[in-house]
Amino acid sequence: MSETSTRPTGVRQERKRRTRQALLAAARRVLERRGMAGLTTREVAAEAGVAAGTFFVHFADLATLVETLLDEHVGQALDTALRTLPDGDLVTRLVHVAARLYESYDREPELSRQYISASLFHRHPDGPTERRMAEFRTWVTGEFARAAGAGEAPEQDPALAFTAYFSLYFGVLVAGLRGELDRDGQVALLEASLRRLVHGTATVPGTRSGTGAEAVAARVAGGGRSA
């Protein structure tokens, strides 16, 4: 009796999951064809082959849908980055994660720009972005604490450490999406900036000079494009 009674619930849940995924895939296709200006709930529902009202069973509004697309995009890259963390120092590990995220955005730069611009000022306390950011904040502050405990870096206020890192990461991400930096330039600039923040120098330990990131920074500040 238990199996019979739970089977319809399982079928409904699976159908709901498939419909949600169909809506997300449809939104991606509409974004690719028409951009944010052409993205409507009715268009997404039609593309997914469902009734217009079905959209609101799964998403409160378009901003929530786009936020979910961005979270899936970031989540896959972040999971990969954390599974492949190197054994290096604090900056090496922070840069590794950022580099994997830059790489994921770089695969679909136009969609990435649309995701970010649409979700940047959309704040949903219980939404996927807030949850993802909380998890990311916990990991970053844990890395700073680990490095301080190992004597690799001075102790930092956790909130300030995360804010400084995320500000640098996001600024470099935007510079890349604007075409001002290629991926090597992004990584070089972020690493040099973080080493200056953490150690007071842009030089990678064990080398005689920096990575050339000062020239990269000057080019970005001047509005130039990377080669």
Descriptors:
mainly alpha, 0% strand
Question: How would you portray this structure in words?
Answer:
It is a single chain. By secondary structure, the chain is an all-alpha fold. Helix content is 72%, strand content 0%. The protein has 10 helices and no strands. The longest helix is centred in the N-terminal third of the chain and has 33 residues.
In short:
By secondary structure, the chain is an all-alpha fold. The longest helix has 33 residues, at 2-34.
The run of helices and strands is: HHHHHHHHHH
What structural category arises from helix and sheet content? mainly alpha
Number of E-type strands: 0
Alpha carbon gyration radius: 21 Å
> Which bin fits the share of residues in helices?
over 70%
Tell me the span between the first and last alpha carbons: 68 Å
Strand proportion, as a percent range, falls in under 5%
Give the overall form: elongated
Poorly predicted runs are: 206-211
* Tally of individual helices: 10
Largest sheet: none
Overall residue-averaged pLDDT value = 84
Q: Give the oligomer, counting copies of the same chain as homo and different chains as hetero.
A: single chain
Secondary structure elements and pairings:
Blueprint: H1 2-34, H2 41-48, H3 55-58, H4 62-83, H5 90-107, H6 109-119, H7 128-149, H8 158-177, H9 183-199, H10 213-221
